[in-house]
Amino acid sequence: MVETPRRKRTFRRPSVIPGFGLSFGYTLTCLGLIVLLPLAGLVAKASGLGLSGIWDVATDPRVSSALRLSFGVSAVAALVASVFGFLVAWVLTRYRFPGRKLVDAAVDLPFALPTAVAGIALASLYAPDGLLGAPLARLGIQAAYTPVGIFIAMVFIGLPFAVRTVQPLIAEIDKEIEEASATLGANRFATLTKVVLPPLIPAVLTGFAMAFARGVGEYGSIIFIAGNLPYVSEIAPLLIVIKLSEFDYGGAAAIATIMLGISFLTLLAINLIQTWSRRRFGYV
Amino acid sequence: MSEIFSPTVAPPVRAEPVASEGAATRTVLIGIAIAFLALFLVLPLIAVFTQAFSKGVEAFLAAFREPDAWSAIRLTLTVAAIAVPFNVVFGLAASWAIAKFEFPGKSLLITLIDLPFSVSPVVSGLIYVLLFGSQGLFGTWLVDHGIQVLFALPGIVLATVFVTFPFVARELIPLMQEQGSSEEEAALTLGASGLHAFRTVTLPNIRWGLLYSVLLCNARAMGEFGAVSVVSGHIRGLTNTIPLHVEILYNEYNFVAAFAVATLLAVLALITLVLKSFLEWRFAGELAHGRSH
Amino acid sequence: MDRPSTAIRVEGISKTFDTAAVLHDLSIDVRAGELLGLLGPSGSGKTTLLRIIAGLDAPDRGRILFGDDDATGLAVQERAVGFVFQHYALFKHMSVADNIAYGLNARRRADRPAKAEIKRRVGDLLDLIRLSGFGDRYPSQLSGGQRQRVALARALAVEPRVLLLDEPFGALDAQVRKDLRRWLREIHDRTGQTTIFVTHDQDEALELSDRVAVLDRGRLEQVGTPDEVQEHPASATVMKFLGDHVEVEALAEGGRVLVRGRETPVAAPAGTIGPVKLYVRPWQLQLAEPEAAHLSGTVRSSYRTQGRQRIEVVDIEGRVLAVEDFDGIRHPAGHPVGLRINGGHVFG
């Protein structure tokens, strides 16, 4: 029996397709230089302050008020975006009406429209003398230069996430499930709440988390409408910019680290939701 | 007896399918959805154009007679012309390595590639300031060697590449995974070299997905504001991209000019959306499924 | 007559994926011009063996020889094999003609035939697969059977040393399968192309092959003509895999096999004495009077298909024994019957 030497164990499973070394090496190099090294620089800068240093920055009244504002308003905005996003996704997948394709395309507008453009447009619409700001002012609601304006911008920016995460799942719902529920005597409301909605909950939560994370970090579409009054309508990302312009790199890095930490927790939450969903429903 | 077999008028067919809401409910829900989208998404877009032309066409055109506007347009085109091809090459390499091969740690790699999407734009700029700024890690070295990264083209390109980093890869990875490797294997058994197989089999198979991702990548590269704002230094006529130029005009209360220049980006967004929808409609089967934004 | 020469020699091939062994020290010779069927259940390693011959997978140890040349180290491009993938792997964005011409166009300019020559070859192959006039269509416009044939033409275009087909009819429905089987045999007889195909379908392997190689859990159980493997299965595994059977407790004694003390016509393998398992095919069982019977039971059901009568008998232990007999008598359910064994196999 002829024996060739046993092949050595390799990092990747052997394959006849060429180019692994080149493509893998290039990928890691780019990832390392563009993404990982700069992020490591941030972590290094923040850890130079120490936990107590970061805590000092975070508990500074102006910073903590900005963080509370960013996270609080973003949570409310993500909730509103999730509710209306679900409605929009449902209408777009389930109903046929003229202009449906156009409406569907419009959902992606916040993805495509540069944030600065959205920002000045929202600011001019909701300014006290603006098209929407004037009637709101008559109702006693001041939108621009208050947290209300920040909320509006965050709903704008978060809506596509809420719609696009649930839309494919609504499209995949097997109509026979609903028909089966109907033949078993359930009315439409019971069918929706007991059969249709529960499997969609993970997707809705994922959409909420994505809209939330996006809202917390958002800058361009907010700063024009927010008015940026310290303690009132100054968001955390803007405070980073202000610290940088004061050459307070440490303070900027500390706020950035806190924001990064919380967005990673959000990412982790999304992953947990998806793991749970895969186990419970067999899909994400 | 005969009554049973005689043809009778069929009972009225239930007009509503079982698995749907009533017509009235449907109409109300469609109405709410459209009103909400019109108010929150479409109205701001319309506002850009009405504001831009609020003082007439002449005032609109005046915004483009500014040399600063043109230098912003040139800079934005330059940045996109570097950042987009870079991300195309990166995306092709990453998706080839990830979709065609099995290796440990693959899902970690995908997560890391997606990382820039979950980083605030301002933080995306900040990390380069921390590296290349005057007090930054490489700051003194760069100053000593007379290399300008921050407040110059390299910094703007780097920040743009960072925020658009995942666009091409995350479209191509699932697409190539769905397509598998058997067509490439077939090409190899027929005597094609790896490069020939890539050119004649892989590239044609992913061309629409690639175009799709390039569209989105380009829109973001040209429109990025937060990250670029942090690294650019806002030097008029030198380091201002179109979005930064819009900001400056707006902050100077030159609203008509700000919105006039903003229409450029709004039109870009509209073209992107139209082409994106067209690709989704015409080539749905050749784009990645299971992709989320 | 000349002994057929060996086209491909597989020598001591072993292959492990992750931690699971797929092939164990497997050797087999493929004769020039033969149509060899690799038959085995899923997970038997047959597709892996085919891919190793093609150079799509590399063995952990062992050699592949094409003729007298060691091909183990050759890249897939240099092996000149024609591989037909299970799901065809046609190039979706190319016309049928471009698919077929792909291998010729992929050659270096010096070796590449002229455009007119390629066109002529593609035309000939389209005739061969009976798809003349389909050259400008795209794979998505073809039926499953047509795609199969295009995949075959594409593989044949490069004039391969050996044609390798992975479950060639697996994705097709029953009637198309039958037609394509006959057609593949015809093509083979006309071209004399050395061909190896993989299948898990016994009928397909037995009908189509010159020789059948039965694989099980990464080991070669038997190679032989369809008649040989059916009449003289080398192991219980081969016996089991090739069709319905009954296992009967028996006794080997004096070169003969006894069941319940009665002699059967089955000869015991040399040197085998004591309790053995006798494997019997349905057609080796016959209804018989109790005094001549080896087994007994009651009829559970009886039906006729295509000129044969099949009777299912339940024995005392509750096992179902299938019998094929031609006596033409109706056997009511519940009726007690005796069964006589007319043949069978005992493995040492």
List keywords for this structure.
heterotrimer, B: 293 residues, mainly alpha, 14 helices, 0% strand, C: 348 residues, alpha+beta, six-stranded mixed beta sheet, 36% strand, elongated
Description:
The complex is a heterotrimer of chains A (284), B (293) and C (348). With 284 residues, chain A is mostly helical. Chain A contains 13 helices and no strands. Mean pLDDT of chain A is 90; it is low at 1-8. In chain A, helix 10 runs antiparallel to helix 13. Chain B is built from 14 helices and no strands. Chain B is globular, with a radius of gyration of 26 Å. Chain C is α+β, with helices and mostly antiparallel strands and 348 residues long. Helix content of chain C is 24%, strand content 36%. In chain C, the strands form four sheets. Chain C has a six-stranded mixed sheet, sandwiched between helices. Chain C has a five-stranded antiparallel sheet with strand order 13-12-11-14-20, with no helix packed on it. Chains in contact: A-B, A-C, B-C.
Mean pLDDT of chain C: 90
Helix content of chain C: 10-25%
Sheet/helix structural class of chain C: alpha+beta
Q: Overall mean pLDDT score of chain B?
A: 90
**Major sheet characteristics of chain C:** 6 strands, mixed
Radius of gyration of chain C: 25 Å
Net shape of chain C: elongated
Summarize the structure.
By secondary structure, chain A is mainly α.
Topology:
The complex is a heterotrimer of chains A (284), B (293) and C (348).
Chain A: H1 20-59, H2 61-94, H3 100-106, H4 109-112, H5 115-126, H6 133-138, H7 147-172, H8 175-183, H9 188-196, H10 201-217, H11 220-226, H12 236-245, H13 249-281
Chain B: H1 2-5, H2 23-52, H3 56-62, H4 67-100, H5 106-114, H6 121-132, H7 139-144, H8 153-164, H9 166-179, H10 182-189, H11 194-223, H12 226-232, H13 242-251, H14 255-282
Chain C: E1 6-17, E2 20-31, E3 35-39, H1 46-54, E4 61-66, E5 69-70, E6 81-84, H2 96-105, H3 115-128, H4 144-156, E7 162-166, H5 174-191, E8 195-199, H6 202-208, E9 211-216, E10 219-224, H7 226-231, H8 236-241, E11 246-253, E12 256-259, E13 262-267, E14 274-280, E15 285-288, E16 295-305, E17 308-315, E18 320-325, E19 336-341, E20 345-346
Parallel strand pairs in C: 3-8, 3-9, 6-7, 7-8
Antiparallel strand pairs in C: 1-2, 1-4, 4-5, 9-10, 11-12, 11-14, 12-13, 14-20, 15-19, 16-17, 16-19, 17-18
Helix pairs in contact in C: 2-3, 2-4, 3-4
